[in-house]
Every structure is written in C-alpha cells, then in structure tokens.
Here is the input.
Amino acid sequence: MSSMQSELTELALQLIGRKNKVSFRPTQLAAGEMAEEDDDEGTEPSRRMHMKFHITTQEMNEQTVWSVAPKKKATGKQIYYLHGGTYVDGFTNQHWYFVANLVERLRCTVTAPDYPLAPDHDVHDALEMVIPLYRELVETADASNLTLMGDSAGGGMGLALAQWLRNEDIKQPSNLFLLSPWLDVTMTNPDISRVVKIDDSSSEIQELRQRGKMYAGKTDPTNYIVSPIYGSLDHLAPITLLVGMNDVFVADCRKLKAKADAEGIALDYREFEGSTDS
Here is the structure.
C-alpha cells in the first residue's frame, strides 16, 4: 500500500470514529475552530475555510471547480474529490469539513468539482465535466501524486471514471479511494435487505432507485459508467474501500470485494461499525 493510501485510510478511520452510530457529520469531521458552521447551506467553503486555506475556483462546463490548498507547507500531493449526494444533491457542510480535514492533516491540495446533478443532468453531463478536469490535473500534476477519491455517489462516479480512463488508455491516478461507494443504482442485490434489515419496498430503497434512474437518463443503469460494479476491475489504480457494516451500500461493496477476488485483483477492503450518510 502506498504512503498516501495508508495516510488516507488512517485519517478516514479517525474521522469516522468506528462508533456504533457513524455518519459524516460536521461535528465529527471538524477540527478545532472548523467545527463552527458559518454558512447556511454549505454549497461552498465557509468563511473560516477561506481564512485558513488558499481557495481558488475555475469554471468548467458552466460549473464551479474548487481547489483547496494549505497556505504553507504543502506536500504537492493532490486529491481529486467527488462528493456524495445520490447524484441529486450538491455540496453540504459535511463535505467541506471533510475536505478541510484532508487539507489540514495531509497538507495536500483537494480539487472538488460541483458536477452537474440530476434530474436536470445525467451521467453523460457529469462525465463531460469530470473527465476533462482529470486530464487537466494529470497535465499539471504528476499522476503519481494524484489520488481519485469519492464518497457515496461520488465513490461510484470515481470508480466509473477510473474504468473509463482504463478503457481509453489514459494514465490512472496513483490511488483510488472509495468511501461507502454507490456501486449499483439498480439496488437489486437481494443481500441489501438481509444485510441492513430493510424491506425491498422501503421508501429509502425506492427513492434511491428513482434517483439512480434520473442519473442514468437514457443510459442502461447496468452500464458501468452508471453502475461500476458491472465493469472490470482489471488494470485500475490500487483501490481502498471503506464502508459501514450497517450502510445501505455495504451489500454491493461486499459483492465488489468478491468480484475483485474472483478477478485476482487486490482490493484493500475495510468495514467499520455503523454507517455513513449517502
């Protein structure tokens, strides 16, 4: 395992806390004065983050790309971060507090795109933004210093992006780091209801399926660009996957681990008690 993978794993587990009830909430992720919420919606970094870090923006496909970096002692390490939100919700305070901890603790630069969201946009609109941004990052920073990271929906998008890069013979990042990734928007794995004790017809499952359909648009929801569990894991960057034992996505994460084992692919897979928010 690379040093960046090890550092990210250690930090993520510290932030998650390995407690009975776990979620990426601002009070858990915040460090010191970062814990105070001073922006209502969290759609962009708080005033305190602007004071603490060097933050810049650029426009890409009429969407904002945020770059958050240390003001001093930057290591040169880069994280390309894709936020969660089941493909319909944008940044929240919890995402920004997580980013703040990454930058503060690892002295890295985090690039976080405000990618297009369903239902106004679909998977192709999202990829038309995140792919060129990846190309730009690889051109400006050595891929050996770049980690592709995503949580929940962002984790699914991150794995799909890595698979697309592989298929197009584009250089992989040094690491692929997935936090409770949404791997299959169809939510048809029969183990879901058994693992998390949730009925297949529950409102949560039905809402997730509906959001997955909106994100897929006219694309088959079992296409790997929408549901990367259906794509090959061969010749991807080293993968680390963290997921809660009670997470609604844990059954598919276990399925991905079994798939990796069957393909002879090394996957650093960790489960912790509790769950994470989508």
Q: What stands out?
A: The chain has a mean pLDDT of 88. Strands lie at 53-60, 63-70, 78-82, 109-113, 146-151, 175-179, 239-244, 267-272. The two ends are 27 Å apart (CA to CA).
